Each structure stands twice: as structure tokens, then as C-alpha cells.
Amino acid sequence: MAKTSKYDHYKPVPDLAEKINKKKKKPKLMAVVDEDNCTGCQVCVPFCPVDCIETVPVEKYGIPIPPVQIRFDECIGCQICARVCTKLTWDAIRMLPTEEFETLYEYTVTD
Ligand code: SF4
Ligand code: SF4
């Protein structure tokens, strides 16, 4: 019989990353935080396997709990943050195809 744990009700929330990795090639998808929807709760932060989610500098909005942002050049497009945010908090992260993201934001993701 499958082993049960007191955290079973959180499934299918992804597991926390066991170790921090690095990007090896340009990902197909890019995570984008909708800063207007993000509460700044930081629940997503420890789930990112490459540790590329950070708080927006306080000066940008001048509010006590700023939203988070993604360091795009490090994101591997794994979608974990988006799943975590949707399941546990507020649904504030969108996964965009990288090419679409680059056109929309006039930003070139390095690999
Ligand atoms: S879990 Fe969602 S609402 Fe919370 S900080 Fe991350 S993106 Fe923002
Ligand atoms: S998709 Fe989200 S969790 Fe995955 S690497 Fe990018 S920012 Fe981190």
C-alpha cells in the first residue's frame, strides 16, 4: 500500500527543490509574474529549482510587501512556480512561449 503522509492533501503541489540547478539551454517557456495580482507572499520562491524568483525592489512600488519577479536569464521554464501559485495562493504567474515573451517584452533570454 502507498505510504501516506500528513502532507498528502497538498498534492499535486510540486516537491520543494532538493538542490539548486543551473540552466543548460534556452527554455521553451518563460514564467512571467503578473505584478498586479501577486501578493508578495513568496510561497513560490523555495519551489524554484534554479532559485530565480526574487522580490521586486521596494523602491519600485513603495509598498511594504512588494510582488516577486523572475530573473528571466536563469528561468528554465519548468512551470513549478505557476502550479504552486495557482494551487496554494493567487494564480499570478503565467507561462509564455519564450519567443512570444521575447517579442512582447522586447527582451532576449540568454541561454
Ligand atoms: S506564490 Fe504567487 S502570489 Fe505568492 S509571491 Fe509567488 S507569484 Fe506572488
Ligand atoms: S518556471 Fe518558475 S519555478 Fe521554474 S525555473 Fe522558472 S521561475 Fe523557477
Topology diagram in text:
Layout: E1 29-33, E2 53-55, H1 58-61, E3 68-70, H2 80-88, E4 93-97, H3 98-105
Antiparallel strand pairs: 1-4, 2-3
Bound molecules: iron/sulfur cluster (2 copies).
User: How many strand segments?
Assistant: 4
**Number of spatially distinct domains:** 1
Q: Strand order of the main beta sheet, please?
A: 1-4
What is the CATH class designation? Alpha Beta
Percent of residues in helices: 10-25%
Bound molecules: iron/sulfur cluster
Major sheet: 2 strands, antiparallel
* Shape, principal axes of CA atoms: globular
> CATH fold name, please?
Alpha-Beta Plaits
**How many individual helices?**
3
- Order of H and E elements: EEHEHEH
Low-confidence stretches: none
Structural class: alpha+beta
Distance between the termini: 44 Å
Q: What is the strand content?
A: 5-15%
What Rg is obtained from the alpha carbons, in whole angstroms? 15 Å
Structural overview:
The chain is built from three helices and four strands. The chain has 111 residues and is of the alpha+beta class. 19% of the residues lie in helices and 14% in strands. The protein is globular, with a radius of gyration of 15 Å. The protein has helices spanning 58-61, 80-88, 98-105, and strands spanning 29-33, 53-55, 68-70, 93-97. The chain has a single domain, classed as 2-Layer Sandwich (Alpha-Beta Plaits). A two-stranded antiparallel sheet has the order 1-4. A two-stranded antiparallel ribbon has the order 2-3. One iron/sulfur cluster (SF4) binds at residues 31, 48, 50, 52-53, 70, 75-81.
